[in-house]
Amino acid sequence: MGLGQMRSGPLPFSRILAHTVPGLSRSSPLYTITRIRRNAVSGDWLWKCRFHGRTEISRRYSFYISGSDQVWSPISAGFDPVYFLPFARDEQKLSYAASIGSTELNTDIKKELFSRLNGFQVLSVREESAKKLLMDADTNREIYVHPDPTLLIPREQWLKIASDPVVKEKYVLVFNVEKPIHDITYAKKLATEKNMKVVYLNDRTIRKDPDITYIEAPSPDEFLSLFANASAIVTNSFHGTVFSIIFQKEFYVELDNRKQRNIRVESLLTQLEIPTRSISEAQSDTEINWDNVERILRGKRENVEIYFNAMFGQKNKHE
């Protein structure tokens, strides 16, 4: 059982587990949720969550890994208790590159976060800010910072998946997750300077700009191709930044959005020793030392292999 800020309705993870766990059907819920009371400070509802089929789930696999991306975010993932693996035994719980998505949490959420993570033997997070937040609660805890799994695969492997070029002309690619503030204007200015077209990977724009080519719902291989073949990229997305780095592109990031600053991208750039690529800061035009970036990534991939070998080996000794 756990208390947390929750969203109601069926969640994809429960349906995935129902496929693989004997005794659970896709029509029966993995857990039931009951609304308890409203938080007097934040205004958020608190929910009680009771899991079903806990024994069957814990017997099915040796390990359960929570991660990556914002699985522990009170906003993006709704602080879903499933991502804290309450159905598994403590010795089965691992995390990999889990992100909290924020440096500031209210007291109730922070307390609940620390409580939910008590059973994890060691923790792997994606940002230094997450490590610092968690170490504030337990300075003796082993906490590792590991790269997003997309960065574990070298560029050559991604290129094997990418389709042939989707756009024949040279172009500046725009890819946003958050609602943009200035990056569309920045992309158009950049395209004019380079005599290129602007291609916007977007399916939410109602009023379309006649000077922009819009692409909606590309397949995964087309998505990769759009990044791999772009002459430059403008984005406010973490994974937009990741694929810009993987394909070693000239790229620029809108770090400030309408909600908060994108600390996840800032952390990534710092870890890879990439000078700021913010569209609002002068250093954006600083040349990137890609050889150095690749050297750092190779080291991080080696550390990830060591991490999992240590975790799995340690677990196997107990079996």
Short description:
With 319 residues, the chain is of the alpha/beta class. Helix content is 35%, strand content 17%. It has helices at residues 12-20, 54-60, 107-116, 128-137, 155-161, 183-194, 220-228, 238-246, 263-271, 290-318, and strands at 2-5, 31-38, 45-51, 64-66, 93-95, 123-125, 143-145, 171-175, 197-201, 212-215, 232-235, 250-253.
Describe the structure.
The structure is a single chain. By secondary structure, this protein is an alpha/beta fold. It is 35% helix and 17% strand. Strands 10-9-8-11-12 form a five-stranded parallel beta sheet, with helices on both faces. The two termini are 27 Å apart.
Helix-strand makeup class: alpha/beta
Tally of individual helices: 10
Rounded mean pLDDT is 79
Which bin fits the share of residues in helices? 25-40%
Question: What's the gyration radius in Å?
Answer: 21 Å
What is the strand content?
15-25%
Strand order of the biggest β-sheet: 10-9-8-11-12
- Give the low-confidence spans: 1-30, 33-48
Number of DSSP E strands = 12
What general form does the structure show? globular
**Element-by-element helix/strand order:** EHEEHEEHEHEHEHEEHEHEHH
Q: What profile does the largest beta sheet have?
A: 5 strands, parallel
For the termini, the CA-CA separation is 27 Å
